[in-house]
Design goal:
Layout: H1 6-9, H2 12-38, E1 41-47, H3 48-57, H4 62-71, E2 76-80, H5 84-89, E3 93-97, H6 98-103, E4 126-131, H7 135-153, E5 154-158, E6 163-167, H8 193-201, E7 205-209, H9 218-231, E8 235-238, H10 252-262, E9 265-269, H11 283-289, E10 294-298, H12 302-307, H13 310-323, E11 326-330, H14 343-360, E12 364-365, H15 396-417, H16 424-443, H17 447-473, H18 483-511, H19 515-519, H20 527-545, H21 559-568, H22 573-591, H23 603-615, H24 622-640, H25 645-665, H26 673-715
Parallel strand pairs: 1-2, 1-11, 1-12, 2-7, 7-8, 8-9, 9-10, 10-11
Antiparallel strand pairs: 3-4, 4-6, 5-6
Length: about 725
């Protein structure tokens, strides 16, 4: 076997371009790591009204319960819009449906509506509202009713006493009806200044979740912030509620201006699939208008939460804070006892343990941290919130240098596949790519080109990594190396392969290393293709360099003729069995990638994941340590045992799955960069253990399997 010509396969100038690009990528990555490290504070939140209702149902002091939650680590209480039903229950105002009043006798509802009970003008399809014990609440209700429903639906019904008639759905629902608009008594009615003050007086920060005004008016936005200002409380976060953000559709910029003036962060509620955020119309426009001053918020869906046991829910919070840069833990309380523990003690223990685990991972508890430009921290705002120095966008010149690594990798691969694409043609490809990238980066944000460069890096560097390994294996001339020697060789060669793949991973992490990607407002597209393409490209590369129809060790190959020969192969039952197995593996492989696959995860795998999360800093991906790295070890064994080329091909394709998964980890920009590097190291350690076991097992079985392999090869 001839010694491979390294310079012919790996153009030195293109390799130098990759080295330069890698240095630029490391420079940008260290900036990103610094930004991530500064974002080290987690805010623990509960629903204020939900906490009060729990205390009421349990006959427990609300003051005592809230103080206990504060001691357990809750920093912030979330205040929603008030409702006529709630204000009426608290006797701050009085509100009753018209159909109830038509049948009521004198003295009903504290006698607040006695003056109109005999009126023939009472409308069963209306709600009647009058003042109660809180004059401030009455004024807020009047203001919000006119803002939300207008003078056509809200009319004075009586002057003495002052009673308003509000036309609309007067029902009182025991359970929400998600198919229809909320009835009047339970519809959103703006923030209550009294509630905002109560939260701060009890020693908590405030987060708000008001709903948009329909029909929208700018006066609604002014009313919202007038109440916040009047209360004098420290509002840390605005989390959208309902179907759209406040200000949608006409004045999102105005809403953003109001948030920026008070440095109130925008809360991005993570979607249940863990991919981007819950859908609110206008959310992305509002995020842009506040210059990406936002935090990622985790909340377990109510229906799912009702089915979870506390230990299962507990595992999610600190892990999400660390792995997905969640900075607001919006904890939903349990509403029924578990394992003989009543709900007060259950929820207090739940919060204490969440806080303990979050602190155990090195985070502080307080006002949520945000991603922002590196450098001196901006001073705190007038309302006490930590300052925001602005959205981070990587230096465009450095990004352009990083892009050189993606284009050089593409040129290298094209030169390996197409003999005519060498030398000058490779340089022209790189020059054209760099001009295109420069135009995109300096004439705009260059999002599409950056997505493309990230894709190229993600799919090509695992392939180039395996190409280097194949070139190393071409130098093997004898099959005398011992099993122990094969294992030692596989250990350092896998480490080298991972290091080469991490070049592409680092390019990816820097190409997409701006604040919007880190928040996951922008995401890497083509996750499933990123898993498939390295396998297909490695297949083409292998068929280009090696013949699977000739004797072992013969490397002369023609890509097109081999593909034609594969298509002409007569299919037997054995082929169909093998094809069926491969299709099943592909279905699992692709279906389990990303966040939208429908392939369920077996219970035993879930238990394995939980175990690895406990014993390792960063749980490695199964595709790496269970498929890719063991296949790599076996590929080394196959190379030293002069196995048939078709056998090497199968193992090399398995090995590239691990390398591709490793690089694809860095496409999840919400995950801190250092965690992704550590995950790769953990995958190497665990994969090496399984690889060693696989090599030993195959070496023991080889004398029995070798005759069958020889017969199969001859028949094929």
């Amino acid at each position: 076997m001839s010694v491979p010509n390294w310079k012919e396969r790996y153009n030195p100038i293109l390799v130098l371009c990759i080295a330069v690009a890698f240095c630029a990528a490391l420079y940008l990555m260290q900036i990103r790591v610094g930004i991530e490290k500064r974002n080290d504070t987690v805010e623990q939140t509960l629903d204020y009204q939900g906490s009060l209702m729990m205390a009421q149902r349990e006959g427990y002091s609300s003051e005592k319960l809230l103080q206990q939650f504060k001691d357990a680590g809750v920093t912030t209480l979330i205040v929603y819009d008030t409702t006529l039903e709630r204000l009426d229950r608290e006797k701050r105002i009085s509100a009753m449906p018209g159909d109830v009043l038509q049948k009521a006798a004198a003295g009903v509802h504290r006698g607040d509506f006695d003056a109109i009970l005999a009126s023939p003008a009472l409308d069963p399809d209306a709600v009647y509202v009058t003042r109660g014990h809180d004059e401030e609440a009455w004024n807020e209700v009047k203001e919000d009713l006119f803002l939300r429903y207008g003078a056509e639906r809200v009319k004075p019904f009586s002057q003495t006493p002052e009673i308003l008639e509000v036309k609309g759905d007067s029902r009182l629902l025991l359970e929400p009806d998600y198919r229809a608009k909320t009835p009047m008594m339970q519809a959103p009615l703006g923030l209550s200044v009294k509630e905002l003050r109560e939260v701060q007086e009890k020693g908590f920060y405030v987060a708000v979740r008001p709903q948009n005004y329909l029909p929208y008016t700018q006066k609604g936005v002014d009313s919202l912030f007038a109440r916040i200002d009047k209360s004098g409380v420290q509002v840390t976060t605005y989390i959208p509620c309902g179907t759209d953000v406040i200000g949608f559709p006409a004045d999102i910029g105005y809403m953003g201006k109001k948030l920026k003036e008070r440095n109130i962060r925008l809360g991005l509620l993570e979607h249940v699939t863990q991919l981007q955020f819950a859908k609110f119309a206008g959310l992305d426009a509002l995020l842009r208008s506040v210059d990406n001053n936002a935090v990622r918020v985790l909340n377990i869906d109510a229906q799912e939460n009702s089915k979870l046991m506390m230990p299962d829910a507990l595992r999610r919070w600190a892990l999400a804070d660390e792995e997905r840069n969640i900075r607001v833990n919006y904890v939903r309380l349990f509403l029924k006892p578990q394992n003989g523990v009543d709900i007060i003690d259950l929820n207090l223990d739940y919060m204490r343990k969440i806080t303990q685990q979050v602190k155990g991972r090195g985070y502080k508890i307080g006002v949520a941290g945000v991603f922002q430009k590196p450098g001196e921290a901006a001073p705190a705002s007038a309302n006490g919130n930590p300052g925001f120095s602005g959205s981070y966008d990587p230096d465009r010149k450095a990004l352009l240098v990083v892009a050189l690594g993606a284009w050089a990798a593409l040129a290298l691969y094209m030169g390996m596949i197409l003999p005519s694409c060498k030398g000058t043609k490779q340089y022209l490809l790189v020059i054209f790519g760099m001009l295109l990238t420069a135009y995109s980066l300096f004439m705009g944000r260059g999002l599409s080109v950056r997505q493309g460069l990230a894709f190229v890096s993600a799919v090509l560097y695992p392939v180039l990594s395996m190409s280097v390994m194949l070139t190393l294996w071409d130098t093997i001339k004898t099959d005398t190396k011992s099993t122990a020697g094969v294992i030692v060789t596989a250990l350092w060669q896998l480490a080298l392969a991972i290091a080469l793949s991490l070049i592409g991973a680092t390019l990816n992490g820097s190409i997409m290393g701006d604040l919007r990607f880190m928040l996951e407002a922008d995401i890497y597209r083509g996750v499933k293709l990123t898993f498939i393409m390295p396998v297909l490209l490695t297949l083409l590369l292998f068929l280009r360099q090696y013949s699977i129809f000739r004797n072992p060790g013969e490397n002369v190959a023609d890509l097109f003729s081999q593909l034609v020969q594969i298509c002409k192969t007569r299919l037997t039952l054995g082929h169909f069995v093998i094809l069926g197995v491969l299709l099943f593996v592909a279905y699992i492989f692709v279906g389990r990638s990303g966040h939208t696959g429908g392939v369920p995860v077996p219970a035993i795998e879930i238990k394995l994941r939980l175990f690895l999360e406990e014993v390792m800093y960063a749980r490695p991906r199964e595709k790496e340590f269970m498929i890719g790295h063991p296949a790599f070890f076996l590929a080394v064994l196959a190379a030293y045992r002069m196995a048939p080329n078709w056998c090497k091909l199968a193992l090399v394709l398995g090995a590239v799955i691990g390398q591709g998964s490793l690089v694809q980890t860095f496409c999840h920009m919400r995950t801190p960069a250092m965690m992704s590097y550590i995950r790769a190291a953990d995958g190497y350690l665990l994969g090496s253990v399984l690889g060693i076991i696989a090599v030993i097992a195959v070496s023991v079985l080889m004398p029995y399997v070798k005759p069958w392999l020889r017969r199969f090869t001859l028949n094929e």
